[in-house]
Write a structure and sequence with these properties.
globular, Immunoglobulin-like, Neutral Protease, domain 2, alpha+beta, about 25% strand, 12 helices, about 500 residues, 7-stranded mixed beta sheet, 5-stranded mixed beta sheet
């Protein structure tokens, strides 16, 4: 395990900024597992000098070298709400079997009239068949193990007028889950895909896209009327000759939020540019967001490892929920509307929650539809860890206001298809999930709990983790009998 952790150190270190400080080792741990530093943010392709001889590590290095690459040339007209895209996907077959088909998911097709495709082609593509948001491409000859293929899709988005993560309002345009992607593939179980769930109140329940870590190269050109636009994105942009280029390695996706209303603020914190984009009425909340973000980044650097990107953008959202994306967080206007200069508010609660997703979603992936507790229960419990660290006198308030006051019930291992829709999902996964993690901590002890969480994150960085992976990390750090606790909180208690 230690060898593999060293390989992760190599990968992470190549992703990070050269000018930042070394990570602080977690406190109260029996033995530090690894030290992570912060060299330049580049694509982590290890050289032969760093390759170990152990076959498992060679497989991991091969995976890093042969991850999917998305190249997107984007023309965006803010006034007309249209986006024209030429997308090129380089996909590697990382299995030991030939692949005769390749699946694409087209998330914008969930919105009627939003997606118009003019071309789809590839050097091995012979034909395609479409079902809902899925396009299955036939490959001939089959894609051999270790080989790559290129797919080109040319499409236009006619963005819907809606307040949400995909669409436009008078205040902003958001582009999240806006282009075709290749989902994860396992030779034993096939393509890892889920249907979006919408409950009886027309509320989307959780997320549904499981995504592998990939590289994103985006070139954005603004067309038409583009005066005073501020662009929040998943990574730092470099503008030249009217085109802004973005490069984001080892991420789950790439997102934008663009507005002519944003008021921006930026600060440097331990080598990270923390940027806020808020609407004029939220001007006073901008500094408060930065203050909480700085604390949260410090805490997660201690519990996990330092935030491995150069920028973190926190963006006001013209809708009533929050959303994590790689390198960028959308924070509901409802959170900001009711901000007051005091710790007892939803801003202090939810900023740490969303920032934790940069580790527990972006770096450590999971299936957000089948095992949503692996990111949402953890992110909710990270709120408690934040209050325990920075506002200990208000920790009891957090538990009552955030969790106990809702009298939550339901199985922690519920899926997004849980009967009862969003409210039942929130109570079971987020809130009862936080209660489970607190009970687990009390059972195994603080040191073992934090050590297990640390090991789980480090062991599963850049992968799609499962409950088995988490409980393996617990087992390696505690010999406590979890059976009664798991039977209390899980409908299908995992083995450990």
């Amino acid at each position: 395990m230690r060898r593999r952790l060293l390989i992760l150190v190599i990968a992470l270190s190549l992703l990070l900024s050269a000018c930042s400080q070394p990570a602080t080792e977690p406190t109260n741990l029996p033995t530090p597992i690894a030290q992570i530093t912060r060299p330049p943010e580049t694509s982590p392709i290890p050289t032969s000098e760093t390759e170990p001889t152990h076959s498992d590590e060679l497989v991991f290095l091969s995976w890093l070298e042969k991850r999917t690459v998305y190249d997107l040339d984007v023309n965006f007209d803010y006034a007309l709400h249209t986006v024209s895209v030429v997308e090129n996907i380089t996909y590697f077959n990382r299995t030991d079997q030939a692949m005769s088909e390749l699946l694409l998911l087209i998330p914008p097709r969930y919105f009627e009239g939003a997606y118009a495709q003019s071309k789809i082609a590839g050097n091995l593509v012979t034909q395609s068949r479409e079902t809902g948001i899925q396009i299955m491409l036939s490959l001939e000859p089959a894609l051999q193990p270790g080989a790559s293929t290129q797919i080109q899709i040319i499409f236009t988005l006619m963005l819907p007028n809606r307040q949400g993560v995909f669409g436009w309002s008078e205040m902003q345009t958001n582009l999240v889950d806006w282009f075709p992607i290749v989902p994860p593939f396992n030779p034993a179980t096939g393509w890892q895909v889920n249907e979006r769930v919408v409950d009886a109140t027309n509320t989307i329940v959780g997320e549904y896209i499981a995504a592998e870590s990939a590289d994103f190269n985006v070139r954005l050109r603004l067309t038409g009327s583009a005066a005073n636009l501020a662009i929040a994105a998943s990574s730092e942009g470099k503008e030249q000759a009217g085109i802004t280029e973005y490069h984001l390695p080892l991420a789950r996706s790439f997102s934008f939020s663009i507005s002519d209303r944003f008021i921006t603020q930026e600060t440097q914190h331990n080598g990270v540019s923390i940027r806020t984009y808020v609407f004029p009425q939220h001007r006073d909340a901008g500094q408060a967001i930065i203050d909480v973000a700085e604390n949260a980044l410090d805490m997660f650097a201690e519990f996990f490892y330092p935030y491995p990107r150069k920028t973190l953008s926190l963006v006001a959202a013209d809708f009533l929920h929050n959303m994590e994306t790689d390198g960028m967080l959308l924070v509901s206007k409802g959170v900001l509307d009711f901000y007051r200069d005091a710790p007892l508010n939803n801003l202090t609660i939810l900023i740490p929650h969303e920032i934790s997703h940069q580790w527990l979603y972006s770096l450590v992936g999971n299936d957000p539809a089948k095992e949503p507790w692996l990111d949402e229960a953890f992110a909710t419990y990270c709120e408690a860890l934040y209050f325990e660290r920075f506002q200990p006198e208000h920790l009891a308030w957090w538990w009552e206001n955030r969790v106990e006051g809702f009298n939550p019930s339901g199985w922690v291992d519920s899926t997004t298809s849980i009967p009862g829709g969003y409210t039942a999902y929130r109570d079971a996964v987020y809130l009862n999930g936080a209660k489970f993690l607190q009970s687990l901590r009390e059972l195994v002890g603080y040191q073992a709990f934090i050590a297990a969480l640390y090991q789980y994150v480090l062991d599963n960085t850049y992968e799609i983790a499962t409950a088995t992976d988490f409980f393996e990390a617990v087992r390696m750090n505690s010999d406590a009998d979890l059976t009664p606790l798991l039977r209390q909180y899980f409908q299908n208690p995992p083995s450990y």
